[in-house]
Amino acid sequence: MADAKISDSETADLEQFRNETRAWLDANCPPEMRKPVTSDTDVFWGGRNAKFSSEPQRVWFERMRDKGWTVPDWPRVYGGGGLSAAEHKVLRAEMARMGARPPLSSFGIWMLGPALLKYGNEAQKKEHLPKIAAGEIRWCQGYSEPNAGSDLASLQTRAESDGDDFVITGQKIWTSYANYADWIFCLVRTDPAAKKHDGISFILFDMASKGVSTKPILLISGYSPFCETFFDGVRVPTSHVVGTVNRGWDVAKYLLQHERAMISGMGERGVGRPLGQIAADSVGTDGQGKLDDSMLRGKIATFDVDEAALAACAERAVDLAKAGQAHPAFSSAMKYYGTELNKRRYEILMSAGGLDALEWESERSKQGARPRAWLRTKANSIEGGTSEVMLGIVAKRILDLPGA
Amino acid sequence: MALVLTEEQSMLRDSARGLISDKAPVSHLRHLRDSKDPTGFSKEFWHSFAEMGFAGLLVPEEFGGSGLGFMEAGIIMEEIGRTLMPSPFLATSVVAASALNRGGNATQKSEFLPKIASGSLLATLAIDEGAKHRPLQTSLQAVRAGNGFKLSGAKALVVDGHVADLLIVAARTAGAAGEREGLTLFLVNPAAKGVAIERTIMVDAHNAARIELANVEVTADSVLGEVDQGATLLDGVLDIGRGAVAAEMVGLSDEVFNRTVEYLKNRKQFGKLIGEFQALQHRAAELYVDIEITRAATMKALQALDADVAKAASAVAVAKARAGTTATRAVQEGVQMHGGMGMTDQFDIGFFMKRARVCEELFGDANYHTEQLAKARGY
Ligand SMILES: Cc1cc2nc3c(=O)[nH]c(=O)nc-3n(C[C@H](O)[C@H](O)[C@H](O)COP(=O)(O)OP(=O)(O)OC[C@H]3O[C@@H](n4cnc5c(N)ncnc54)[C@H](O)[C@@H]3O)c2cc1C
Questions:
Q1: Residue A360: is it exposed, middle or buried by C-beta count within 10 angstroms (0-12/13-18/19+)?
Q2: Where does the Acyl-CoA oxidase/dehydrogenase middle domain lie (chain B) (predicted)?
Q3: Does residue A386 have its Cβ closer than 6 Å to ligand 1?
Q4: More reliable by pLDDT, B116 or A96
Q5: How far is A50 from A388, CA to CA, in rounded Å?
Q6: For residue range A237-266, what is the model confidence (pLDDT) as tens digits?
């Protein structure tokens, strides 16, 4: 079938795009930005109070932003790069090849952007998307509540209609970076009488609004990237609702698919040297170059097999989506596997590091970067929906197994 | 290359699936087993298979084949895995055809490839000698004698060895077991003097033979590729076989899994469908994820083989290792979740379990391939 094949001229165009991209990246990505990220503070998050941790980080961000490559596949009118899916794949491959870091990390890019592109009205898209692309506004996610975690749809934060405004009262929890964020995308209950999923709306507002307060929560890793977030009569114009009032669950679910896809790929962002080589540095090798700990070697090799297989599956997921053959719940399958695998990676790193990996506060250990990262990964199988919930979704939505 | 089947590939899959599930469902294998069929597969069906162009799928068009790729061969293997159809496809159409195509000289190609394409010649690779797949451990001796060689030694688990018209035998022309140098591939006529073939009835009711060679004389023309330099040719041919077996295991895993999920939706205990129990739901979901990841890894390996066999080793190791682990898990969970029913011969599940065990050993198990990956990555 001729139409199933990519024509020769398209292939040639793509090759040209690859060559140009490679040349541009070579000329524009500073050497410092080709090294793996070592800690959370090494990542650029943008926002009103944005801080660059280094000059190369600023240069890299600005160059990529000017090309629209903080969001390469978004339309140009919204500040994106306007790349086709095939071109985007090429760009990602070329960046991975040289180990280039993402220029900007942002919930706006990973989660809100895709939801706005699908459900937002034109005014909302024009207002918010370019600022996300340019890293001007930093977003946080107001989903979970103390009594609505896995059972997210039981959320209770109320939004009562008052003229052209909603008045929002309630509490959110685990709101990552709420204390640094400029705006929040938030799930609120707009119809308490309706069935659980039918009375929820998806709304956007400024964290500087009157009545918003946040209180950080300390994690086992010693970081406190999350907050409890309180809303006390916060007034938000009704025009800030994305999609239809009371139909926010659709938007919420769509956004979660993107969040899950993003979290499942989290391991990749930290990639530096292969595990086997890192381990060789600390445990040494025998005469044949084999790791001097055969059990550890076996674990690493099995991990490498699974990681390579997952990478193929992630690539296939994108290709399936492009071909319109993806199951909407497939991101749950990937999220489950990707996060469990990333936890395994850090267990191996800890065991390869031995006593050296136990240092918590010292210059040598970069303030315990490795053990802190290890502890942080434990949240991967909780945030964005727990592994148990992901397996439940696969069982019900994909395998169509019976029950609630 | 996208990791999605093209329209032509989907059509190929559909037509293979239609034919195989119609003419060779699991009951076909069961019948061959129960009747102790001397051939172990249906010759009649093999001919219809050949008429569809499948036997010569990898044979170049100039030799009467369809000149398709490893991705397409994998598609057929996956369908074969779904019904466990015993057939010469793997040994003849994939492995032997690739060996001849990659290593053969003009005479060898034009003599054998057209016959493979028409389905009239069965061929197989005789490689392993010990209990585990260790290609470099080959010690079957080939000593120069006059213009040719004399072969002596034994091979175990030669797929289709009892019906093959042509054996491709790995032998040592120099060096010692374990070394890369000194391996040579020979084309051997199974009817030649000194060849003894014993069919082994294997656990999976598929076909294999033990072969002994005692001073078997072959001419210099029967060398496939270069004398002493067979390891590289063998690497590529084996990788092709591994990719194909991985695809068979994906089909097998997927089928056993589908049957298990159906069972979870129908079997009642404690007044509930057993699929309502979360303990089983989560295990089923985990297995689904495993299979999808393995499918992608296998497609990746087949694409890598299509792009360049010599550069596909790591992708193939990943696929074969994953496929072995996943298939083992799929059949074990299949039996377990079927409860007592899963343990009965009357039920088909056990056939999948037995075939998975054989596929796991064929061309290297998960440990073997995991080890290869570690070595390739230098640790
Ligand atoms: C690092 C981190 C960052 C986060 N960031 C944000 C954020 O920015 N914004 C936000 O809104 N939220 C955020 N969250 C919250 C996160 O989404 C919730 O923690 C998560 O959904 C689980 O809810 P819970 O903590 O209430 O656990 P619970 O729902 O109480 O779960 C407890 C345990 O019960 C299990 N369980 C619950 N229901 C089932 C079931 N049906 N079947 C099987 N097992 C079940 C769970 O798997 C878990 O093991 C974050 C969480 C973490 C850890």
A1: exposed
A2: 129-215
A3: yes
A4: B116
A5: 36
A6: 999 999 999 999 999 999 999 999 888 876
